[in-house]
Write a structure and sequence with these properties.
Blueprint lengths: L5 H4 L2 H6 L28 E5 L4 E5 L11 E4 L19 E5 L8 E6 L11 E5 L10 E5 L11 E5 L8 E5 L4 E4 L8 E3 L10 E8 L8 E7 L5 E6 L11 E6 L8 E5 L8 E6 L7 E5 L10 E3 L19 E5 L8 E6 L12 E8 L2 E8 L16 E8 L8 E6 L12 E8 L2 E11 L15 E2 L1
Antiparallel strand pairs: 1-2, 1-28, 2-3, 4-5, 5-6, 6-7, 8-9, 9-10, 10-11, 12-13, 13-14, 14-15, 16-17, 17-18, 18-19, 20-21, 21-22, 22-23, 24-25, 25-26, 26-27
Length: 461
């Protein structure tokens, strides 16, 4: 069934009555310092990757959140995007952001691990320059270095790795990872230490955080071993040390390892980032694990599933709880809360309709939560078998009220008779948690990527 789009259906009068407005993107006269404000208007923007259609849709933030009429969809066939779209590219499989060229506007960094380049291993990363008018200044493509089996661009991170005060780009391929020195991606590329990675393992994700030191970044890599077991490792130290001090956090059947998802946030307010991983295959229905950061050491892992005290629901086979995770301060109390996707959750008698659980933080623990799905009051749409609501989640403050909002994707959402087009929902943060008031929803058809199997909303940034 087609998702009802509350954001578009809402009248201007209703929005005005709520004290909201609908400014157009790119109206600012000065650049922003936000890492993901691509048009410099002072609001964070939401990027939606749809590798099934080789596209990225950017919905520009505003006081009224996000909506389909303030957005742009980019493909490698767009005039401002380098390259040419090919079916196997997977453009949008990975998205990150940062001011790469130092002009004060955030730039969009897009991985396409399936890209085929003659004479090179597969994969590429495209940097699209942000600016006052959005993405009008073109960009640059980084091709895969030679020393890899391919799938360069499987994951990217933009952070200050070497402690020189300016961020750098790091990229992983299926079996290797890379660091760009200097300013942005203009410096030399270095292949980092990989001896700690098990033979035949495939890397799928990477995040950065101040896990063990407050004045430097650590990295967590995760993926799958050759035998199908999960693999999760942490590295600390500055450039030249990454990989040489690798610490395996979990692997194989260890439920605290992940091949699915990871996020970072200081959930106990001690100045160290804490690592949160999701394992959708752990136990019956999946789980999430929290490792508190600290002075040169992680705390003991604490795992939550849907049978844990304060967590809504019941731990059931196939739920996929932990398939996606994101940390962000929804309530505005200064501590990150946690969104957990369970795309396999059965709602009523509808299998794999999917749900998202918001767990509220309390001094480093998650003691209460609320579950959201398409049958929740005020949430647009109707849950159907295989929708996969919660396939992706992202918490970020879109409307600049000091409280993170939830975006979540359902890649199996059908639109009319077209299967698996995919859709994205946005729920606002409040002092008491998420609310469905003024909920927004949109799908791939709203942005010209409504083909069968597109899976709109696979990646959220």
């Amino acid at each position: 069934m087609r998702v009802r789009n509350l954001a578009i259906a809402a009248s201007a009068a209703a929005l005005a009555a709520a004290g909201l407005s609908l400014p157009l993107a790119g109206t600012a006269s000065a650049a922003s310092t936000l890492k993901d404000d691509y048009n410099g208007d002072g609001y964070r923007d939401l990027a939606i990757g749809t590798p099934g259609s080789n596209s990225v849709t950017v919905t520009f933030g505003s006081a009224s959140g996000v909506a389909a009429n303030r957005a742009v969809t980019l493909t490698q066939n767009s005039i401002q995007v380098p390259g040419v779209t090919e079916p196997e590219d997977e453009f949008g499989e990975n998205i990150t952001s940062g001011d790469v060229n130092g002009d004060g506007y955030a730039d969009l960094i897009v991985g396409a691990p399936g890209e085929k380049v003659e004479g090179k291993p597969s994969g590429s990363v495209t940097v699209l320059w942000g600016g006052q008018g959005g993405f009008t200044s073109g960009g640059r493509v980084l091709n895969s270095p030679d020393d890899t089996a391919g799938r360069y661009g499987e994951a990217t991170v933009w952070t200050d790795f070497d402690g020189d005060g300016s961020p750098q780009l790091s990229v992983i391929s299926g079996d290797n990872w890379w660091y760009y020195s200097g300013a942005g991606e203009n410096g030399r590329v270095y292949g980092l230490e990989v001896d700690f990675i098990p033979e035949g393992a495939r890397l799928d994700g990477m995040i950065a955080g101040k896990f063990k030191v407050k004045d430097g970044s650590g990295l967590v890599l995760y993926g799958e071993r050759a035998d199908g077991g999960a693999y999760t490792a942490h590295m600390n130290g500055g450039f030249g040390d990454y990989g040489y001090q690798a610490e395996v956090l979990g692997e194989g059947d260890d439920p605290t390892a992940t091949r699915d998802a990871a996020t970072a946030g200081d959930v106990n307010g001690d100045g160290y980032d804490d690592l949160i991983t999701g394992n959708s295959r752990a136990g019956e229905g999946g789980s999430v694990t929290v490792r508190l950061g600290g002075d040169r050491a992680f705390g003991a892992p604490v795992t939550y599933d849907q049978d844990s005290e304060g967590v809504p629901g019941t731990d059931e086979a196939g739920d996929g709880f932990g398939a996606s995770v994101s940390a962000g301060d929804v309530t505005g109390d200064g501590l990150p809360d946690l969104a957990v996707g369970a795309p396999g959750e059965t709602i009523g008698n509808v299998s794999a309709s999917g749900s998202v659980t918001l767990l509220k933080s309390s001094a480093g623990a998650f003691t209460s939560g609320q579950s959201w799905h398409q049958e929740s009051a005020g949430v647009p749409g109707v849950g159907e078998a295989g929708d996969g609501f919660g396939t992706s989640v992202r918490l970020k403050d879109i409307n600049k009220n000091g409280k993170a909002d939830l975006a979540t994707g359902a890649t199996g959402e059908d639109i009319g008779t077209t299967r698996d087009v995919g859709a994205v929902w946005a729920l606002r943060g409040t002092a008491t948690g998420l609310t469905s008031s003024y909920a927004a929803s949109f799908n791939g058809s709203d942005f010209g990527v409504g083909t069968a199997g597109a899976g709109f909303g696979r990646t959220l940034r």
